[in-house]
Amino acid sequence: MKNHNFFGSLLSELQKIGQALVLPIAVLPIAGLLLRLGQPDLMNNAIVLEAGLAIFANLALLFAIGIAGGLAKDRDIAAGLAGALSYLIITAVTKVINADNNLLIFGGVIAGFIGGYTYNHFYKTQVPIFLAFFGGKRFVPIMAGLISVVVAIGLGYVWPAVSAGIQNLANWITGAGAIGLFFYGVFNRLLIPFGLQHIIEKYAYFALGTYTNASGEQVVGDLNRFFAGDPTAGIFMAGFYPVMIFGLPAAALAMYLSVPKERRYTVSGLFVSVALTSLLTGVTEPIEFSFLFVAPLLYAVHAVLMGTSFALANILGLKAGFTFSGGIIDLILSWNYFTNGWLIPVLGVGFFVVYFFVFYTLIKVLNLNTPGRNPEEITPLVDSSNPKKDSYEEVAPLYIAALGGKDNFTELTNCVTRLRIKLHNSELIDEVKIKQLGAKGIMKLHDSVQVIIGSDVEFLADAMKQALK
User: Fold this and answer.
1) What's the pTM?
2) How far apart, in whole angstroms, are the C-alpha atoms of residue 461 and residue 214?
3) Are 54 and 73 in contact (CB under 8 A)?
């Protein structure tokens, strides 16, 4: 039982980290948009271009603020301030110890952890009455600053070895070519159920590989290098496009057509919604969770196909990137940066055919229980495809009741597509009712529960928080 609790707690902490990493990424779409609009072939406007470049140039600081806020119990501004303070201290002190030290995005990540966890431990600190002004949340930046000095001294001496190790790992992965990228794609999907894919993604996007631009500045990470003009960058993103725009919508079509004709109308809204979400935005969790639990074999096939997409993109010389994910919106914004971008629709058509044929065949031959195929399947309580009809304020109390009631909640947050909840007793969950309310899936992990909602999850989370007050 102790080992179970340890690993459960470890997984819960890793999920928090993955969730916190998502928050600063929210600024990248506007950075990419400004960067693209400012180019000579569009607006040819230096002001717009520099506005986009400014965001990329300060990503480490934005990570420090965003991660600290994401890890803080109530996402208070004091945590973000502590993260920013920590980043400034760590950057300065490590440079004093070794002028060549450059922590890059890791400086922001480390500072974010310090800011977030310092807030959680010290935001209620009481001090003597004559120092009362410095108590409570005002005590957080003070402690974050002191901790950051100590951490920075250690980092200043060990960072050269760490940096060399990161570079060697980057060289090994890129040297492995298609094989390495195949396994990257497979493991990326296999981590989705646990919400941990963000950790390896952000490592690849912001830490792997270096490039010196025309101004002599060193740019690090697959995503950063891609938008800085590195012709070798984009290998850790290119493989998403054929699957997200073509493959998964084909899977949705296969699942829809495998439903008996007389019941298709009951699931048409679901499949159209999740297919469009993947195709337009590259957010795949809603469609993936529609078959992950009911047909895990399909998910295993999906993971292998994702790895195959990365391998083929590498073999054929496709280099592509994005600011958010591999949907059509990012495809349009980033198209001029692509190398051999014409391969995306070519590979996409192939993946559309493969996904449709494999999914439809396996569902029919093995009688897999994908949505709509079970005649005794639960009847939806609300129209989840039309949030205006059943407002979030009306649905929120129903979710709370299905999760054991107000008194069962200890924590409620959300990421891009999921409610992340800590409960006193997860046995009180009514999974049938949660799915009737429109949830795409449920993950129970120790004392934590994840409810997969979709890209509108933030509105539901806000309504639930208000209802819990």
Assistant:
1) 0.76
2) 45
3) no
Q: Which of 244, 262, 401, 412 is nearest to 328 (CA)?
A: 244
Q: Which two tokens stand for residue 137?
A: 């949340």
Domain that holds residue 351: 240-366
Catalytic residues: 415
Same domain, 253 and 288: yes
Q: Summarize pLDDT for 337-392 with one digit per residue, the tens.
A: 899 999 999 999 999 999 999 999 999 999 988 888 876 555 555 554 454 445 88
Contact 308, 273 (CB under 8 A): no
For residue 414, count other CB atoms closer than 10 A to its CB.
22
CATH number, domain containing residue 408: 3.30.1360.60
Residues 325 and 403 grouped into a single domain:
no
Burial of residue 381 (CB within 10 Å: 0-12, 13-18, 19+) is middle
Residue 252 has pLDDT above 80, yes or no: yes
Residue 42: C-alpha distances to residues 7, 39, 46, 55 (Å): 51, 6, 11, 20
Give φ, ψ of 340 to 5 degrees: 60, 40
Report the SS3 class of residue 396: helix
User: In this structure, which amino acid lies at residue 213?
Assistant: N
Q: Give the count of domains, the chain.
A: 3
- Mean of the per-residue pLDDT values of the chain: 86
Answer whether residue 176 is part of any domain: yes
Cβ of 400: how many Cβ atoms within 10 Å? 19
Mean pLDDT of the region 385-404:
77
Contact by Cβ (8 Å): 31, 324: no
Could you tell me which residues come within 8 angstroms of residue 112 by beta carbon, excluding any fewer than 6 positions away? 20, 63, 64, 65, 66, 67, 68, 70, 71, 83, 86, 87
Max mean pLDDT among 81-85, 162-166, 226-230 falls in 81-85
Q: How far, CA to CA in Å, does 49 sit from each of 39, 54, 197?
A: 7, 9, 31
Query: Which residues lie below 8 Å from residue 389, measured CB to CB, with a gap of 6+?
Result: 382, 383
